[in-house]
Amino acid sequence: MTDMTRRQLMRHGSWFGAAVVLVVSGGAVYSKVAGDDHADPIPDDATLRFVQLSDSHLGFKGPANTDVAGSFSRAIAQVNALPHRPDFVVHTGDLTHLATPAQFDQVKQMMTTLKTGKVLTVPGEHDSVDDAGQKYRQAFGAGTRGDGWYSFDAGGVHFIGLVNTLHLQRLGHLGNDQIDFVRKDVAGLGSDTPIVVFSHIPLFALYPNWGWGTDDALQMLSLLRRFSSVTCLNGHIHQLFTKTEGNVTFHSATTTAYPLPSPGQGPAPAPVTLPAGRLKHALGIREVGYVKGRRTLALRERELA
Amino acid sequence: MPPMSMPATTPGGQAAPSAPVAGNAVQIKNFGFTPAVLTVRAGTTVTWTNGDEDPHTVSATGGPFHSKTLTDGATFRYTFAKPGRYAYLCTIHPFMRGTVVVTG
Lengths: 305, 104
Prior knowledge:
The complex is a heterodimer.
Chain A: H1 3-16, E1 20-25, E2 28-33, E3 48-53, H2 68-80, E4 88-91, H3 101-111, E5 119-121, H4 134-140, E6 150-154, E7 157-161, H5 176-186, E8 195-198, H6 217-222, E9 230-234, E10 241-245, E11 248-252, H7 279-282, E12 284-290, E13 298-303
Parallel strand pairs in A: 3-4, 4-5, 7-8, 8-9, 9-11
Antiparallel strand pairs in A: 1-2, 2-13, 3-12, 6-7, 10-11, 12-13
Helix pairs in contact in A: 3-4
Chain B: E1 25-28, E2 33-34, E3 37-41, E4 44-50, E5 59-60, E6 75-80, E7 84-89, E8 97-103
Parallel strand pairs in B: 1-4, 3-8
Antiparallel strand pairs in B: 1-2, 4-6, 5-7, 7-8
């Protein structure tokens, strides 16, 4: 077992009991909700499979990762080498470090090389540092509504992409317009429709002192309470983390750029420089699969190859 | 004298600064503004310097000033003409909060 997976197990065990089991096999970490006894979380007959990438920070310069573009290239190559071509790839924000036009150009061009049916994004706060997300929406906002939110259906699952990195006052924020959008968006759906929500900042109070939460997330989640399966996928914290609350399971993804400290460890959520050779173990990609009839989506975390 | 107690005066005999901190500089370090509350007289130009690797901004919650994104070592200056209490934050890391109190 690698140090990374040992840390994850400790984190899961000490924070939230044994709600989620991580199984390590062949260098991949499988995360699944306890009671789901399938050996392979994403079997060949999956009706839908997609990949989540996050927090690539194109333009970052620092000792924590002196080549974030190279790391992102390797992540893309890893996606392209997966045995099953993903139906789509979603990037959950902080595509860029400083939201410059050059950084948006670079990350957009790199993502055109992904072998997948569709590429989706949600913005991080680094993608909207100085213009409330205008440059982000110019680059990635086609077909979205409001500040960049959207929804779609695929493989029997309803997906919602949310923007919670604008109008910040300590924590992530959705705003009433976006919550109204969700209310209308799910109104006609049957309660057995699996729901998957993308956002950059966690939609639960992971560590509010560092801004790792969303102040009005509960209003939005209350609209999803009647659904039997809700999965929220986020980035922002640059580390794996999973929590289940009632019908909702939250999965924080790791990063393709550099790690951040565990919540509350140290004075600030500043980039962590690992000993030589350890960085790639902190970076990774996430595969997600859905098999019709199962209540939960299956996740497979892969360290950067 | 216990080692942690502060001397009442400096070796030169001048009174030590009393809280809130005076001066006209704010350091941005470890995702925080130091001092968190700065008191200046009207007409003072305050300088913020980012000492973090991460980018930050200095943005008044009420609106009068809003820096560009400050990268490592970058500075932002603003001259406070009117007395008042000016709260500000970093828009990228909004848990970072500071206040400038401007006296007449």
